[in-house]
Design goal:
With 385 residues, the protein is α/β, with parallel strands linked by helices. It folds into 2 domains: 9-259, Alpha-Beta Barrel (TIM Barrel), CATH 3.20.20.70; 323-384, no CATH class. 41% of the residues lie in helices and 23% in strands. It contains 15 helices and 16 strands. Strands 9-10-8-7-6-5-4-1-11 form a 9-stranded mixed sheet, with helices on both faces. Probably acts as a heme chaperone, transferring heme to an unknown acceptor. Binds one molecule of heme per monomer, possibly covalently. Binds 1 [4Fe-4S] cluster. The cluster is coordinated with 3 cysteines and an exchangeable S-adenosyl-L-methionine. It holds the Pfam family Radical_SAM. One of its GO terms (cellular component) is cytoplasm. Belongs to the anaerobic coproporphyrinogen-III oxidase family. HemW subfamily.
Length: 385
């Protein structure tokens, strides 16, 4: 069945805790030295799921993603309880994809079988690098050997698994990256997420970079690293299906496709975002980021939502464009016109085609080309103007 015939509906659940904070990370993650009261958090997750399901009843859940933070710090029975709560309040598709993000440490790998039993059928491992010096510089608590051992355990416990790597790291050459990537693909089987290191404000890396103590590759090297990524992955049968995500045909992450295709998803847990359709209006929701404050909110009023914006047709269409053009499959301009009430400007399309930044397929689909992807933001801005 094509994705058009069956409405996708994703549930994202955010577990906000980490053992330590990585110096490049600007996600909503928190380190707590006292043990986290998992039972209390599970009750709150279940309560927020119930409240959300009352707003969007009758959905069939096609994908669930447990992200963080570090969800693999949860006990398997905690994960099982969250999945049970989802199944209690919505129908769950028989072929639902249930992904859990995990750190590739030996401690967490011992829980993999338990997660499998709880209902997880895909793991995404935050490997980040395959050499120890880089891992240390990235503030990771595992070695390359330990990461590869965890990947092997994931391979034995799950039919589907993926891992992340960060490239454009200090002192990294295209040659080194090509070798590391080939090794990764030999371990990765079906899916890889490959992110260029970005220096985010408010992180320790930002301060170091500003002080000249952290050298990241210049623009030409960054571009060469990006090109190597595309070439090696395509040659090895894992082409990019999205700007930072590579998969064998049919092994794409269903949950991520929900975001990029502009479909509906519920955001559960501290700092989670959602997109819900209520009475024909698209709502953009976000919950309280601070875990303890979120917990008290849910216990008090059944949810932790702090923003709930109705998107107008223009905002809705811009978001569809922004997300959809990240995909190799591109977008259907007719869908854009339906959402926004106006067509994309044919002159702009013609200009961008001439520059080789976008292509229009025989069926009218619009997609960004290989040479357009490195300047994606500019292409999107041009089309949306």
């Amino acid at each position: 069945m094509s994705h058009a015939e069956r409405e996708a509906f994703g549930v994202y659940v955010h577990w906000p805790f980490c053992l330590s904070k990585c110096p490049y990370c600007d996600f909503n993650s928190h380190v707590r030295h006292a043990p986290v009261d998992e039972a209390r958090f599970v009750r709150a997750f279940a309560r927020e799921i119930e409240t959300t399901a009352a707003r969007v009843p009758g959905r069939e859940v096609t994908s669930i993603f447990l992200g963080g933070g570090t969800p693999s710090l949860m006990q398997p029975q905690t994960v099982g309880a969250v999945l049970d709560a989802i199944g209690k309040h919505w129908r769950v598709a028989r072929d639902v994809e249930v992904t859990l993000e995990a750190n590739p440490t030996s401690v967490e790998a011992t829980r993999f079988r338990g997660y499998r039993t709880a209902g997880v059928n895909r793991v995404s491992l935050g490997v980040q690098a395959l050499d120890d010096a880089s891992l240390k510089a990235l503030g990771r608590l595992h070695t390359a050997r330990e990461a590869l051992d965890a990947v092997a355990i994931a391979r034995s416990a799950f039919d589907r698994y993926s891992f992340d790597l960060i490239y454009a790291r200090p002192d990294q050459t295209p040659r080194m990256w090509a070798d590391e990537l080939k090794q990764a693909i030999s371990e990765a089987a079906e899916h890889l997420s490959l992110y260029q290191l970005t220096i985010e404000e408010g992180t320790p890396f930002f301060g170091l970079h500003a002080a000249g103590k952290l050298q990241t590759p210049d623009e030409a090297t960054s571009r060469a690293l990006y090109d190597v990524t595309q070439e090696v992955c395509a040659r090895e049968g894992l082409p990019a299906y999205e700007i930072s995500n590579h998969a064998r045909a049919g092994a794409e992450c269903k949950h991520n496709l929900v975001y990029w295709r502009g479909e509906e998803y519920a955001g559960i847990g501290p700092g989670a975002h959602g997109r819900l359709d209520i009475d024909g209006i698209r709502h953009a929701t976000a919950t309280e980021r601070r875990p303890e404050a979120w917990l008290l909110n849910v216990e008090e009023r059944g949810h932790g939502v702090v923003t709930d914006d109705s998107l107008n047709s223009e905002e809705r269409a811009d978001e569809f464009l922004l997300m959809g053009l990240r995909l190799a499959e591109g977008i259907d301009p007719k869908r854009y016109a339906q959402l926004s009430g106006r067509k994309l400007d044919p002159h702009r399309i013609a200009m961008l085609r001439e520059e080789g930044a976008i292509a229009v397929d025989a069926d009218g689909r619009l997609r960004v080309t290989k040479s357009g992807f490195p300047v994606l933001d500019a292409v999107v801005a041009d089309l949306a103007a």
